[in-house]
């Protein structure tokens, strides 16, 4: 990963503890929200961003829908495990090599929601993720593999903190070009 004048190496930290995960998610989410606040209202449904499938475009609203989808998916994984149900990774009916289809599913699920509603729903999903993380110890989050070789904390980070950072980068690139 290249670190340019706007990106510092210390911004790219893979959390290895509960406190680092909480701090990383909070920081990335706050930064993302600051940039989402700058999206012009008339552009929230315009396909102005590079899509999650090669050669496609998406709107800022689609990007927020994608984040909601992944946050809620993380919560679903934990709910299913707590209920003793079999895992469905990454999501019901989707394989890891079909993540573009999953992105499209997330866009479609939220296509009729307002920008304000999407933003509230994302904040609520993130709040629930934080409650989930706060309910686990360092040992539970990082002490052993949870899915394949990945720890629970790493799976949460890969599907919250990392997408927040990626989304922020997409929004910032577009906003700079306006």
UniProtKB/TrEMBL annotation:
TM region(s), chain numbering: none
Pfam entry (one): DUF1706
Protein name: ClbS/DfsB family four-helix bundle protein
Organism, as annotated: Rhodococcus rhodochrous
Lineage: Bacteria, Bacillati, Actinomycetota, Actinomycetes, Mycobacteriales
């Amino acid at each position: 990963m290249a670190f340019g004048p706007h990106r510092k190496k210390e911004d790219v930290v893979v959390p290895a503890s509960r406190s680092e995960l909480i701090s990383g998610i909070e920081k990335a989410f706050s930064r993302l929200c600051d940039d989402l606040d700058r999206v012009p209202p008339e552009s929230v449904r315009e396909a102005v961003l590079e899509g999650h499938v090669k050669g496609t475009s998406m709107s800022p609203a689609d990007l927020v829908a994608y984040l909601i989808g992944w946050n809620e998916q993380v919560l679903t994984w934990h709910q299913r495990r707590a209920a003793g149900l079999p895992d469905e990774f990454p999501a019901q009916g989707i394989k890891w090599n079909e993540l573009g289809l999953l992105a499209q599913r997330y866009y479609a699920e939220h296509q009729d929601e307002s920008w304000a509603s999407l933003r509230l729903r994302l904040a609520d999903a993130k709040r629930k993720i934080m409650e989930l993380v706060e309910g686990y110890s360092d040992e539970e989050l990082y002490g052993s593999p949870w899915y394949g070789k990945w720890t629970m904390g790493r799976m949460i980070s890969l599907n919250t903190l990392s997408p927040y950072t990626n989304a922020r980068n997409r929004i910032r690139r577009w906003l700079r070009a306006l």
